[in-house]
Amino acid sequence: MAAARVNSSGENNNVALAAMLRQCAACVERNEFDPILYKALGALHAYTGEFAGAKTSTSMQNEHAGSSSSLDHEEKQEPDFFGGATTNGRANSTVRSAFCDVPDLFEEKTQDTSSNSKFKHSKSADNLEDGSYFGSIGKSFKKFGFSQTQADAEADSTKHAEKIAKAAAATPKSAAPQESHPSSSAAAKPQTVADPNAKKMQTKPCFQRPINPSSNLIANGWIEQQRRSKMRVVWKDVLASLVEGRKPGEETTLWIQRQVMGKTGKAELEALHQIPMKWLEDVTYLDFYGDYRFALKIFNVADEFQFRTSDEESAQNWVLTLRSARDASVQKNKGRGNLVEGLSAKDMGLTNLDDWGDGLARANSDTVDDTTNTTSSAPASASAPASAPAPAGQEPKRRSIKELRAIAHGQGINTYGMERKDLEKIAAQYAPQPQNQQSEQQQQWHNQNQESTARAQELKRQQEAAARAAEQQRQQREAAAAAEKKRAEEAAAAAEEQKRQQQEEARLRAAMAERQAYLHRQRMEEEEQKRRMEEETRQRVAEQQAAEIRRRQQEQLRKQEELRKQQEELRKQQEAEQRKQQQQQQWHQQQQWQQQQQQQQWQQQQQQYQQQQQWQQQQQQQQQQPFFNGTASAPPPPPPPPPPPPRAKQQQEHPGGAQGGPGSPINMKYANKLETKSEEAEQAAITNIKRNILIHWALLPPMLQMLRPIDQLVSTIHNCFPPAYGVPAHDYFQKWKPIMHSDLVLSSAMGNTPNEDKLKKAVRKIRFFLHPDKLPKDLSAEQSFMVKMLWDVTSDGWEEFCKQKEELDWIRG
């Protein structure tokens, strides 16, 4: 009934696993993620660990037993990779895991190794890396159901960092590399160039072990996996992790993961392959490649998984570790049998890569002899503590570890790496019988010892035959390798000679080409220099000619300017003479007109005087007639005297001139002449001022018939203030601040059109400055005349500007 219940529960679990796998397939088809994927992976891992071993254990045992005849190496003393050895059936007292027989290449040797050791390892800081990989690996394994926690991973990282510091301080970077494997160094291999992709792996270790001995992580490292992408072969960086299965139902598994960027932008590990060690058919080191490859052969899988590392040591470590894990997994599944099957890797001489390929069927004859001796002496040591049975009602005395191991050794079981519970199970199964059955048990032990001795002798004979065959094959390979090496050396020498000749020819051709290039470059430089000198000469001549032409043009322009100035001066002189003649003519005409007016006035006065005389005579005659007629009328008033001539009038105005005083005619004559001369001088100065103001400031040249624009008059009026044109200076005119013409126009873009508002303000300023009420009282006649003339000209100019503006506004309107 119990078996039926177990079978029914197993079938239910299988049905549930199949349902989960179908759900996972649906998620994958929809490109979705669901936590059931991790759950299905854990259940699938448990299923493979439960059923895969039961089906393949017999075939694996037969395969390992049948491959014992293929040994091809000599028996040599192997080094102890753990600091202790199992001799004469005694195991080390330290409890180790099931994979402690795999050589740890990162631990230091505590004892000296012989000269024929297969491996010589050196601890180098370059092969170690920080413990960050263990932390991420521990998290990934926790998701898949493994027992390692994050605290263990952090402890591993801390211890690993301490080990890195110690290794960096103790070992120099220039440590000598380890010796190559004997099997790979026997045959001559061609020298190959390292793959450039291997440089990317130098920053990450290819193979390393955890610092924590209780960790379920056996080894891990960043290696490259060969994959196919778009009809070509590529190498991808992956993280290989070998994890030991310790719980019931767990299997030792090789995880292949790659680093991807998650949805949060952080680096995560994605599982690519999950390979239980039961599935491994073979692990092969591909020594015919130069990039340190090894291949994994899986049962019922046609293609092999190929990986490569950056150095040979890491590749060999992976091969040895994977083979050891595979053999340990097979041994765990089929149970611990006789002494030959339970031997350690060192006892069986399986330290080379070629030795591990033959499985656990081989055993060293010396070890078998030692275990036989141990078996013969085991009953005596085991019967002593168990001879006296425990009294009734009392619990039996607990056996010590030595007693338990003695019992196991008595049954021919290797106790290397076993714990106390395993030893107790063996002791409970193979406990000594009472005294009446001791002879029968000793007889069975004796028979087993004889059978073991026979098997060991047969195995030794087979090993010797295999060793002789292997020696012959080795000699043949060495001869072929020597011949191949000689041919390769000859071919290399011929190739080197040919390469040297080609290099010499290439050097000569390069030297000739360089010489020709130098001559060509020198010739081109000379031509370029000659052309540059000619160009400079032509340019200098052209500059001289241009300078001469410019000088002549300037000379011609200067002469033309001088001629124009002379003509201008001559024209000005002619105009001045013409104006002077015109002024003289005007003055003469004015004098003549004045004389004519005076004469006409004099004639009129004479006529009036004559008329008055005639009228007076007539009046007198009229008055005399009534007198004579005897009338008594009064006489009429006497007529007024006739107006005297100008000189007579002046004499009358100044009586007493005959006496020779100041009012005498003679004195008045000279006084009038002096006054006339002063008036003429003042009139000439005023005329000169008027002429200079009109010519140099008011009128517009060259015709001098129109006033200048008001903006020009306002901006240049300060040039006409005294002491200009010979007028005496005065402090009042020093107060005037000149007005710039640029302050009166709109802009140069508008054709220098005057701004009406600014111009009005400037005119108001001039009128305020020249207003008669604002002028000082001590101005001379010439200064007053100049101010009055400037006032009149500016007023006329402003009126002309306003008139033109009104006309323009009328035309525009």
From TrEMBL:
Return the Low complexity bias intervals. Answer: 166-176, 364-392, 431-456, 464-482
Where are the residues of the annotated region Disordered?
Answer: 58-89, 153-210, 364-398, 431-508, 520-578, 617-669
Q: Which GO terms describe its cellular component?
A: microtubule cytoskeleton
Entry-linked Gene3D superfamilies: DnaJ domain
Point to the regions of Basic and acidic residues compositional bias.
Answer: 156-165, 483-508, 522-541, 548-578
Ranges for domain PH: 216-327
**Does the record carry Coiled coil as a key word?**
yes
| Keywords on record | Coiled coil
One Gene Ontology BP term is: microtubule cytoskeleton organization
Bias type Polar residues, positions: 58-70
Renumbered to this chain, the Pro residues biased-composition regions fall at 634-647
What this protein is called in its record is: PH domain-containing protein
Source organism per UniProt: Ditylum brightwellii
